[in-house]
Design goal:
The complex is a heterodimer of chains A (826) and B (218). By secondary structure, chain A is an alpha+beta fold. In chain A, 25% of the residues lie in helices and 25% in strands. Chain A contains 21 helices and 35 strands. The longest helix of chain A is centred in the C-terminal third of the chain and has 24 residues. Chain A is globular and about 85 Å long. In chain B, helix 5 packs across helix 8 and helix 6 runs parallel beside helix 8. The longest helix of chain B has 14 residues. With 218 residues, chain B is an alpha+beta fold. Chain B folds into three domains: 30 residues; 80 residues, Beta-grasp domain (Ubiquitin-like (UB roll)); 90 residues, [2Fe-2S]-binding domain (DNA polymerase, domain 1), CATH 1.10.150.120. Classes of the chains: A alpha+beta (826), B alpha+beta (218). The structure holds FE2/S2 (inorganic) cluster (2 copies). One FE2/S2 (inorganic) cluster (FES) sits at the interface of chains B and A.
Chain lengths: 826, 218
């Protein structure tokens, strides 16, 4: 078939999410963050591609699938059928590296051992604010086994003064939080490194500090910075707006305005208003941040526990003024990131300095305490007001939020209020408040769990005021077709029908149910390339620098390649997590699956086409008479002619055939968001203040699920992190001394096995016809956004009392129930 | 499995070979030092602070390593024997990522000194696999996807496998209880429960061949 050839118009060049998020929002535009800029990279507008018209399956199966025509570049494969008709895509597939993980054979950065490798240990500030007057390393240097010491000259991750002259210059960086790294030592054993670190003497001139956000907002509060300061985000996001006003420690607002909220409220039949408080959450990945750096004059090899081999390479190259070609970053196994691990970080830079000095490889893993301080999810104090008509139609939303990202910025919470439902009048003002504490960073759906906790509870409150079922209200105001289907599933499959009025249980233990909804955005990272190689023996490999943080990227890629070649995913060799391979996307903002899988499918397709072209003459046919069917290569005109991939590959004239592909733009320029709905059943013991989650039902959308087994694992994880956030986790700062009191895993409580409720998950397939795979990520919208709000709504349903503060510890719950005074819990 | 560890704590050999004097003496029974404070207080029984060679019985093999008495068993296994399957997450007994078996009983390798493991049978995650044959719990973990980043997985597997050794028919509450000390930040608990109960239910004593091919499996 001769495809119809058209030239893709310029508008085919997809500019991805960040712009669309702001679509319809006027007023002060949000400055584009570095990270988002990166994800927005598109091929130059001048470039145009020859295309053909293809018809894609489109929509949600529950609503009946339809067709969608798209212009597809000529070198891309034909559209995929829906999952039910495919062999590997959409089928639960065990993790590609599951065996390596279950047997302990997988080598994480923390496990790397190199000949002669030294172990490094950081020395951190013991005061929250001040100037270093001296760093004496002599005793440490004298310790046998110590090979190198490095004193930090520039600290990364802290906001920078717009005008550096506002601060007197000094030899050492100003200390702005307890735990800020100052120096590091490398020695022949971890124990000697620890001993040596303890021998490094630091003296300080102390300065007044503030670690409480409320205190920091006071006009006479000690200031963390002597003038306005801005922070960079990471490749995973984070970082707040720049060049907004700053008074004392209060940085902002970043203001977004649509329509006229005063007018909107005056038109409302019902208005709800409330203040909400969320706490600082630390990432607590089980593998701490860390690096092994092997500095050689010809190449610097960096083993990194990172979500972005590419972003780590970029930062090392930038900091050390090295060509990128001389920096190699490797991440084969990675013990969790959740948004915290993108760049070189202070620890990576320090490890590199030490390795360069010692001329030996150096391993530097943060300890658990450092991991709790190195970054976090900012807290929030939100004032939210929503107005609506009798039928539920929203007329106005106003949100003011104050959050602290410590010595960083990026505590905004307006995502859900801005993007979940349509509202003609919107005003959001987001402030960052500096305090002397570790910097905030991207953390699974930055800003959204906080924002959703307030916003989706306010929507529920509105439903109560309008005397509507919370599901009905959302049916009225929510335009998302996937969330509509998800709500329907939840109505049918949970106890929602039997939901009672709020607070009617009479005993001390009260039960309730509630829902909350999430929104996340389709971001695409165009730095998504790979090479697929077929050898004459029929073996197939795929190579990309993309990394697998535990989200199952390796398995995804294996499935996509397998589908194209008709071989088992287990037979595909996956080589990823090494910058020697074609560049892959950094894994943040749920970009990985949606970005890299189309490149992988296209490369597989192209390699297969090349293979067919090479083999066809030996089979006395033409390449276009060959096709894959049921795992076999067959003649289109004679089905009796059927060959295995091995047989076909054996006919190659050269030893191997390969195709290298970079992701093309999305097929159409459309605003695409994803969303989930989570349902919670809980019991509140009103005498002890204990909240017990009994059941969670999550209905979620991640485009075309490639590996439902892995997707469900991720959603389980999001839900459980969400429960953990809602009920347990809380960074506690010592106001008098200025340091984190619970920087460990026994006092910083994360959810354990006994707090795990029954969880049921339903995936909603959503075909969007945007790429050759239609895959999408699930990391952000998987429960972490919704759970605190859903628990809050269920808590209200159980008790008739609204929890406006998390974590819902017994003390906070008893205070909300009026059983103890607020002061007793403070 | 052939060398299924017994849950009874074996105290054999603890008091054998007392009288450690020189730093070069191989410690045969340092566990006894920790267990018997009185004896341990005798000056001629103290060791360190310098490194001393000790014999450790790990996964069915004797190893001699030279370690300082302050090294934890986790450090010893990871840094000196290259057995990095045992993970260190908190290094203070609050997460169970470092779970190994000492004489068949789960123990925290970060809270055990290397010298205190002398004379005991140490089993690590690497020792759970016999040649190419994975332990049924490992197989079930892969089948149920009871892992994401996998950093907690070795500890989880060691805990769950030990549970099944002492209780052949655990219920959900037993599994939750057993792994209540094992933290997983990725939130893999539900699948850990499912995998462990699956092994129990099927009395799946022999590891089956693992396949990544769902079509074959179906
Ligand atoms: S590392 Fe041993 S219990 Fe956490
Ligand atoms: S799988 Fe990542 S911590 Fe458990």
């Amino acid at each position: 078939m001769a495809p119809e050839i058209v030239l893709a118009a310029q508008e085919q060049q997809q500019s991805t999410q960040p712009k669309s998020v702001k679509k319809g929002v006027e007023g002060e535009a949000k400055p584009t963050r570095e990270a988002e800029k990166k994800d927005e990279q598109t091929p130059t507008a001048a470039k145009s591609t020859a295309t053909r018209t293809e018809t894609f399956v489109f929509g949600i199966p529950q609503n009946g699938l339809t067709k969608k025509e798209r212009q597809v570049p000529l070198d891309e494969p034909p559209p995929l059928a829906q999952n039910s008709e495919l062999k590997y895509i959409g089928k639960p597939t065990p993790r590609y590296d599951g065996m390596a993980k279950a047997t302990g054979r997988g080598k994480y950065t923390a496990d790397i051992q190199l000949p002669g490798m030294l172990y490094a240990r950081m020395v951190d500030a013991t005061i929250p604010h001040g100037r270093i007057t001296s760093v004496d390393t002599s005793a440490a240097e004298a310790l046998p086994g110590v090979k190198a010491i490095h004193v930090i000259e520039h600290t990364f991750g802290i906001a920078a003064l717009r005008d550096p002259k506002q601060e007197a210059p000094s030899k050492y960086p100003v200390i702005r939080y307890a735990g800020q790294p100052i120096a590091a030592v490398a020695a022949t054993s971890p124990q000697i490194a620890s001993d040596a670190a303890a021998l490094i003497k630091v003296t300080y001139d102390r300065m007044p500090f503030v670690v409480d956000k409320q205190d920091a907002r006071a006009p006479d509060a000690p200031t963390v910075f002597p003038g306005p300061a801005d922070a960079e985000g990471s490749a995973g996001g984070g970082g707040g707006p720049k060049n907004v006003p700053q008074v004392g420690n209060v940085h902002g607002p970043e203001r977004k305005k649509v329509g006229d909220v005063d007018k909107g409220f005056s038109e409302a039949d019902a208005v709800v208003e409330g203040e909400y408080f969320t706490q600082v959450q630390t990432h607590s990945a089980l593998e701490t941040h860390g690096f092994v750096v092997d500095w050689k004059p010809e190449e610097v090899t960096v083993y990194a526990s990172t979500q972005g081999t590419a972003s780590v390479r970029d930062e090392f190259a930038e900091v050390f003024k090295l060509p990128k070609s001389q920096v190699r970053v490797i991440t084969e196994f990675m013990g969790g990131g959740f948004g915290a691990k993108f760049g070189a970080g202070n620890e990576g830079v320090v490890a590199a300095h030490l390795s360069r000095k010692a001329k030996l490889p150096v391993k530097l893993m943060l300890d658990r305490k450092q991991e709790h301080i190195v970054c976090n999810r900012p807290d929030s104090h939100q004032k939210l007001k929503i107005g609506a008509k009798k039928d539920g139609t929203l007329t106005a939303i106003s949100l003011t939020s104050y959050g602290t990202a410590g010595v960083g910025t990026g505590a905004g919470t307006a995502g859900p209020a801005t993007n979940l439902y349509k509202c003609p009048n919107l005003l959001t003002e987001e402030y960052d408040v500096f305090i002397n504490a570790g910097p905030g960073a991207a953390f699974r759906a930055p800003g959204h769990p906080q924002g959703c906790f307030a916003f989706e509870q306010a929507i529920d409150e509105l439903a109560v005021k309008l005397d509507m079922d919370p599901m009905d209200l959302r049916d009225k105001i929510d335009e998302s077709p996937t969330r509509r289907v998800e709500r329907k599933i939840i109505r049918e499959r949970t106890n929602w029908k039997t939901r009672k009025a709020a607070g009617v249980d009479t005993g001390p233990v009260k039960r309730g149910m509630g829902i909350a909804q999430s929104v996340w955005y389709r971001f695409i990272n165009m730095d998504s390339s790979c090479e697929v190689r077929v050898s004459r023996d029929g073996s197939v490999e795929i190579m990309s620098s993309v990394q697998d943080l535990g989200t199952g990227t390796k398995t995804l890629l294996a499935i996509v390649v397998a589908e194209e070649f008709g071989i088992s995913p287990a037979d595909v060799v996956i080589r990823i997590g090494d910058t020697r391979y074609p560049i892959g996307p950094n894994s943040g903002g749920s970009v990985t699956a949606g970005s890299i899988t189309p490149a992988v499918r296209n490369a597989s397709y192209q390699a297969r086409q090349k293979l067919f072209a090479a083999a066809a003459p030996k089979l006395s046919t033409t390449a276009d008479n060959l096709e894959m069917r049921g795992g076999k290569v067959v003649f289109k005109n004679d089905e009796s002619k059927s060959y295995s991939l091995k047989q076909i590959a054996a006919k190659m004239p050269t030893s191997e055939i390969s195709a290298r592909v970079t992701r093309g733009p999305e097929y159409a320029k459309e605003r695409i968001t994803y969303g989930g709905v989570d349902y919670v059943e809980l019991a509140v013991d009103t005498e002890t203040g204990r909240v017990h989650i009994e059941k969670v039902f999550g209905a979620h959308d991640c485009g075309r699920p490639i590996n439902p087994l892995g997707v469900i694992s991720q959603i389980n994880g999001g839900i459980l992190q969400g429960i953990s956030y809602a009920l347990f986790e809380d960074r506690v700062m010592d106001r008098k001394q200025g340091y984190m009191l619970n920087a460990n895993l026994e006092n910083y409580k994360i959810i354990g096995a006994r707090e795990v409720p029954e969880i049921e998950i339903e995936l909603v397939e959503n075909y969007i016809a945007q790429s050759s795979t239609d895959a999408a990520g699930i990391g952000e919208s998987a429960g972490i956004i919704t759970l605190a709000a859903a628990i809050g709504n269920a808590f209200y349903n159980a008790t008739g009392v609204r929890m406006r503060k998390i974590p819902m510890t017994p003390a906070n719950v008893l205070a909300a129930l009026g059983r103890v005074s607020q002061e007793e819990t403070a | 499995m052939s060398d299924t560890p017994k849950i009874e704590v074996s105290r054999r050999g603890f008091l054998k070979g007392a009288g450690l004097t020189a730093a070069t003496t191989v410690i045969e029974s340092a566990s006894a030092l920790a267990r018997d404070a009185k004896e341990a207080m005798q000056p001629d029984r103290s060791v360190g602070p310098d490194a001393v060679p000790v014999k450790l019985h790990v996964n069915g093999q004797e190893h001699t390593v030279t370690i300082e008495p302050r090294y934890t068993l986790a450090e010893t296994l990871r840094d000196h024997l290259g057995l990095t399957g045992t993970k260190v997450v908190c290094d203070r007994g609050s997460c169970s990522a470092c779970t190994v078996w000492l004489d068949g009983t789960p123990a925290l390798a970060c809270m055990t000194l290397g010298i205190d493991a002398v004379g005991r049978k140490i089993t690590t995650i690497e020792g759970l696999t016999q040649g190419a044959e994975m332990h049924p719990v490992q197989v079930a973990f892969v089948k149920h996807d009871a892992m994401q980043c996998g950093f907690c997985t070795p500890g989880m597997v060691m805990t769950c496998a030990a549970l099944l050794e002492r209780n052949h028919d655990p219920k959900l509450a037993d599994v939750k209880h057993a792994v209540s000390g094992n933290l997983c930040r990725c939130g893999t608990y539900p699948k850990v429960f499912a995998a462990t109960l699956d092994v129990a239910q099927q009395h799946q004593r022999a590891a089956y061949l693992l396949t990544l091919n769902p079509a074959k499996e179906a």
